[in-house]
Design a protein that fits this description.
The protein is mainly α. The chain has one domain. It is built from eight helices and four strands, in the order ααααβββααβαα. β2 and β3 form a beta hairpin. The longest helix has 29 residues. The termini are far apart.
Amino acid sequence: MQINKPSTNKIALFIALLFHTCGVIGILCGPYNQWFINNTPLTLTIMAGLLIATQPQKNKWFYIFFGLAFTTGFLVEFTGVNTGLLFGRYTYGQVLGPKIAGVPLLIGVNWFTIVYCCGCIVYQFEEWMQKKLTGQAKFSSTIQGIAFAMDAALLTTLFDWVLEPVAIKLHFWQWQNNTVPLFNYVSWFGVSMALLVVFRKLPFNKHNQFAVHLFIIQLLFFLALQTFL
């Protein structure tokens, strides 16, 4: 039985739109904005669950990538929070839920969600471009792989750049001197690019349309909050 039926994708898209639309309205307009903020972990967990549910033809390599992205994300955040060697000096608040050594467990899930969505977007765009260039000179597979990893890593870094001001205002985390260092974005680019190299090489289906929709929804969500909060 195929999990990612069109109806499943539509249901997932509806849930994502509902949660993020209510979140924007609740945070910006309602008297219960703190309730919406405090339920951020629930929203992030559900979105990751929807990504897994809509993943076509799930195999062990997909779950291996999930585990790798989760573990890598948590470990680099652990290093960043406890040493300042990655990203810069920052601390997590209480909004994102239970923590180990100052790092919310949910942050590993968030790394998977962002990297996976960006990987799916660029992978599908790359395939579309290859079809458009049929009959023309093409780059080698090595060049294509490097271009994919760099493009998708730039997309993840862009997402973090949009997210940062909102995360600070909502007390997801706080930076030393209230300043996001440039090194944070350099590290985001480097770590995500390493994960995306693995993403491209592992043999699992990368045509999750909900991943494309979720990235756009979340990007618009944080842009709206950044503009009006």
